[in-house]
Specification:
Jelly Rolls, about 190 residues, 2 domains, alpha+beta, four-stranded antiparallel beta sheet, 8 strands, homodimer, about 50% helix, DNA-binding
Chain lengths: ~190, ~190
DNA sequence: GAAATTCATTAACAATTGTTAATAAATGAT
DNA sequence: ATCATTTATTAACAATTGTTAATGAATTTC
């Protein structure tokens, strides 16, 4: 995982001894909260192994709206880059191995390697673009169709993520998702 | 309207005689199609007066997902900037007065005034950011709540846009929107 | 490995939505 | 002004979803 970052920035690899201490590997249990809603994001995570979910509270309900897997860089980017309280929480939903970089260190790295900043913007744009697609899907598809889309396009989510989080992600209740599955997969 | 563009770019104002022919004002009837789905966007519009909607076809239905009003710059930006066929259509839903700029001319302007490009990126980012918000609203709110949000945050849409387009925008049928309104506004 | 907790399914009922069709109201065209 | 078309409402019924609660299955904890 970290190899990816290392390799994409030549200077980083060449001076690896100088930087390697900034990348700390941690292992966390499932359900470990990595960022609480309202906190300011001071870390960025690279997922080496495992799965995280991003969520927020609304009317007494915990709503999950994105999942992250191996190879992805994760933070509440808005909070991380603006130092404003995060609107979202971040939590492990599998025992996970993460590479942690602190904001201070990350900013120093950014100064030395401006391509990191570009990469961050790229990630942000990709996320927004993804949300745009999901918005269109909500406007045109039924919950059942959205489940089928997920099955088609991101089967790993359905395989690995507990069902009630998927229900939340589809904007429906766990009970309703169970019924949809019954309708689709038979009996 | 065009004043806005003129004023935000000093050089434009100073050499206005040179450029003014690139900005053509047109008046269009309601229901005029300005860009068909599948066409490559070769124009950008600045709305001086009136209202447009952006839409696409899915399973035999025409789905509206955004409205544009006075003072906004509109194009199928993805198509306009990538020269790929547009996924979306653009249509007037009021008699409208538009300033049209052709892509060629716009690109020439961009070369002379790079801040225009930045402005375009800004517009694109704003639109994505808006879609992100709408996505979260779909995931957490009921159709009725989304209607109330619209009433609260963008009452001009409800005042000016025919109801069946709003229904589409909310992801529900016109019949259902009529029932929601009855529930809310009484009797 | 037993107990506790979490998660998924099912049932029952209420509420909401979709669909179709009929009617009423509003808008546009000649 | 009249006619035609479009748009909004209402009704009736089917389908879907939400909610609550009970049960079963799976997982975690000790």
């Amino acid at each position: 995982m970290i190899e990816l970052l290392k390799n994409s920035i030549p200077g980083l690899r060449d001076n690896w001894d100088k930087y390697k201490d900034l990348f700390k590997e941690i292992k966390v249990d499932s359900k470990t909260v990595l960022l609480r809603e309202g906190e300011i994001a001071k870390k960025i995570f690279f997922i080496k192994e495992g799965c995280l979910r991003m969520s927020f509270y609304s009317k007494g309900k915990d709503i999950t709206f994105q999942f992250f897997f191996e190879g992805q860089a994760v933070s509440s980017i808005e909070s991380f880059s603006s130092s404003q309280p995060s609107q979202f929480a971040l939590e492990a939903i599998e025992p996970s191995t993460l590479i942690v970089v602190h904001k201070k260190d990350f900013e120093n790295l950014q100064k030395e390697y401006p391509e990191i900043r570009t990469g961050m913007q790229e990630i942000l744009l990709q996320r927004f673009s993804r949300y745009a697609g999901l918005f269109l899907s909500f406007i045109k598809d039924t919950p059942q169709q959205r489940y089928l889309n997920l099955l088609q396009n991101e089967p790993h989510i359905i395989q690995r993520v507990p069902q009630h989080y998927i229900a939340s992600y589809l904007g429906i209740s766990p009970v309703s998702l169970s019924r949809i599955r019954k309708r689709i997969h038979g009996i």
